[in-house]
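ok trying again, last paste got cut off:
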Amino acid sequence: MSRDKAQAADKAQAADKAHAPAAPDEEAEETETPRSGGGFGQQMPARKAKNFRASAVRLAGLIRPEMGWMAVVVAFIIVSVVLSVIAPKIMGRAMDIIFAGVIGKQMPAGVTKDQVIAGLRAQGQNNFADMLSAMNLVPGQGIDFNELTFIIAVILVMYSVASLFMWAQGFILNRVVMRVVYGLRREVEEKLNRLPLGYFDTRQRGDLLSRVTNDVDNVQQALQQAFSQLLSSILQVLGIIVMMFIVSWELALIALVALPLSALVTGVIGARSQKLFQAQWRDTGILNGHIEESFSGHELAILFGRREEMVDGFDRKNEELYKASFGAQFVSGMMFPIMNWISYLAYVGIAVVGGLRVAGGQMTLGDATAFIQYSRQFTQPLGQIAGMANMLQSGVASAERVFELLDADEQEPETATSHLPAVTDGHVDFEHVTFSYSEDKPLIEDLSLTAEPGQTVAIVGPTGAGKTTLVNLVMRFYEIQSGRILLDGVDIRDLSRAELRSKVGMVLQDAWLFGGTIYDNIRYGNLDATEEEVMAAAKATYVDRFVRSLPDGYQTVIDEEGTNIAAGEKQLITIARAFVSNPSLLILDEATSSVDTRTELLVQKAMAALRTDRTSFVIAHRLSTIRDADTILVMENGRIVEQGQHGDLLERGGAYHRLYMSQFAGGIDFEAEEAAASAGAAPRT
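nice, full thing came through this time. structure:
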């Protein structure tokens, strides 16, 4: 796309003071991280930050104003984890009471525990005697239901309080994160309004939208889930390890043997699956692009007999996606079975050794039961730590991209020292203007021109000549390096951008309409316009002619893509929107290129009626648009090489004549079209 075209597309945002919706594009250097569960239901590989530490510290700085509440969150997590970790140990005590009651009931009453143990040893039952020695039982006495009820009540209270504290920390953290993200979104929005047009010219629109939406959402998700779950999982792992060593350090060592094996499996399979998932989503993007292209170009493919090639291309890309998806799912699916197998190995070892220690009286059955429960709980937080670490890494990477946007150079601050008169004529003067997008590539050098009030100034020239740049400078989308641009004798750099642009009406090649009624789209040019003014603008621009034929008239709702009205009708509405703003200066950048010749003639007649006391800058390639201009400027390499009217420039045989012969000479019968338009044919495209 040429520079003029690209600038015109981006300029539509600023001219209409709104953001046009755009589909996110793929970024060239970075891969977007789809959220887990999207499309195929798996966790996507995390995107890595360029400078993780600095970005993480800055992200933490966003939470600094909420540090008081964050301390409460951490305290609640600690209390919840401590209670939930201690509970199995106390539950083991309940198991000991039940087991001791069952065994004690089977023993004769009236003897002591030591007498029973001595009798067992005398009979050669040393193992049973050792086991009884570790138990707290009374021969002849059954289960102590009072103590058992008390312990069960304590356990229930502990789990209830732990759940309550976990819910409370989630509630507080959610409120804190929402306030932080709310402030971040507001800061991003304010930053976007302070960025110069040059920033948008040098960035992919999809990448910018991704930073504003997806990346901010990813930051929110990381703060909301990763912080709480990561801290909770780490504390659970530490707490479980401590409790396992308290219960039995020998069994704890057996349980910890599984850690290196788990880490090895996670590292090997995780790295392999990450590459396969990246390939899967790359192939998904390729296939989606092919499908979109097939649908959008379906008629063209049929016309040229390329339907079979399109189907074959789909089959090849679908096969590649199948292989990548199968490999990714198969490899990632191996993770849990292998981890479970390792967990079962540790479980078997713990059960065997624990059983021997219980039988030998070295630990109670309750402690063995508690330890088995700890060993089963141990792998869950480990898996959560790995998952949350990926989420946190992705969140910090997204935060880094948002911070890059927030750190971008802003447009020059306002230095308004003057104001335009209440009534402006639209007299524009360029005095020795010099401008370039980069210092090493000069574009406009020492340009001077004058546009008198009411004149129509047409600007023509080859691609890259600086046509759109010229009107960009008038609108102060870019700041000139030297010289002056005067509007009614006032240097535009001494005006506020809002005051300057309020005097300018702009219509671009790409007609942009927002979702809403036709009436609202026209009135968008001047929210203070009365209904009579809106209708007058609609009639003057021939919008009224086709709106009257619609079932809902001016209340017809335009969808987001504007597909329910014709392209020429969309352009007429944008012209009406510019006219209702009652500008002193009109800028039309290829404004009629998307309409048919008959509609174009109607637009020209409307423009002629509204051109009184207004200066018009027209950038166009169609001869029908520029042949009646008061002045035609021919630009090459940022310079005005010819200036004059259509007939005079043709007679000179110079640059304009060459352009005319190469681009403008056509076989259109303008007189016939104008006669048809005057006969009242409704413009439809």
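cool. Residues 1-46, 666-673, 679-685 have pLDDT under 50 and may be disordered. The CA atoms of residues 604 and 625 lie 7 Å apart.
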